[in-house]
Amino acid sequence: MQVVQWLGVSGRVYIGHELVMAAAPSGQCAVYHPSNPSMTSRVHIWQTVLHGLQVLISYMLMLVFMTYNVWLCAAVVLGSATGYFLFGWRESVVVDFTEHCH
């Protein structure tokens, strides 16, 4: 933990989707030891449900865009840009090498 403090790392460190370490602004670090992963764990089930919801919404938006209605296409693009502006600025803080989309 002292190496992390010495490097000046603040925030959270992820390996895959597992949070392994969080550093407070005061310089104290907390190390998390994830339990053995399981296919039937509550976290994995929630990730599966959220992934399915994301895919469903993506395909629905694709079908809306394929109508070639200019106003609907503009609404999809503007909604995506607004969502990225509001929530995407934190994306550069945490790098997830297992994420393959966008």
UniProtKB/TrEMBL annotation:
Name by which UniProt lists this protein: Copper transport protein
Keyword Transmembrane helix found: yes
TM stretches of this protein: 43-62, 68-87
Listed InterPro entries: Cop_transporter
Signal peptide (from-to): none
Gene Ontology CC, one term: membrane
Compartments in which it is found: Membrane
GO molecular function, one term: copper ion transmembrane transporter activity
Organism: Eumeta variegata (Bagworm moth)
Record lineage: Eukaryota, Metazoa, Ecdysozoa, Arthropoda, Hexapoda
Alphabetized UniProt keyword annotations: Copper, Copper transport, Ion transport, Membrane, Transmembrane, Transmembrane helix, Transport
Domain of life: Eukaryota
Keyword Glycosyltransferase: no
Topological type in the membrane: Multi-pass membrane protein
Family assignment from sequence similarity: Belongs to the copper transporter (Ctr) (TC 1.A.56) family. SLC31A subfamily.
